[in-house]
Structure prediction request, 187 residues.
Amino acid sequence: MSDFLPHPFWNFSLELYAGEGVAEACLDLQERRGCDVNILLFCCWLGASGRPTLTADRLRSILRASDVWQAEIVRPLRQVRRLLKDRPWPEALPETVDAVRRRVADAELAAEHAEQIKLASLHTPPADRDRPPEKRLRAAVGNLGVYAVCLGVVPDGKDRAAVVALMKATFPMLPPDEVARAVGVTP
Prediction:
């Protein structure tokens, strides 16, 4: 990963994604709701860094740019990686297929990084780390709500549980019941 351009959003994403339950929550929302994991992380990062909540119009404009990259680059790489993992090729040495899968996974990660750098360049209001964490939490939850609206999704219990996992990892300094209430879940 040393050849990736450093960026606060990328660093935040790596740390958050490694948090308890975050990968599972993101992948669940990706599979069930068609979410772009980078957009989920972007919504969290904007809120966590004290930036204002996105408007639906602003997020739609960001999504137009990221959707093309996802459709033409990221999802095809993911499909190839999954195919190499899930469908054995009896005529090939397993080590060879595994080596190809790892290289495709590396390319997929590089494509995700490129998308994150682009996302960060598309929306650049100044950060306000002095903004109280409760307000930053509300902004992050608001961003995810705006994303749901843009996707045409009415959040259900599973969606809210996934968002709680994301918010707990994004705002570990806040009590878990406060995070749950901000997401609309009664602790």
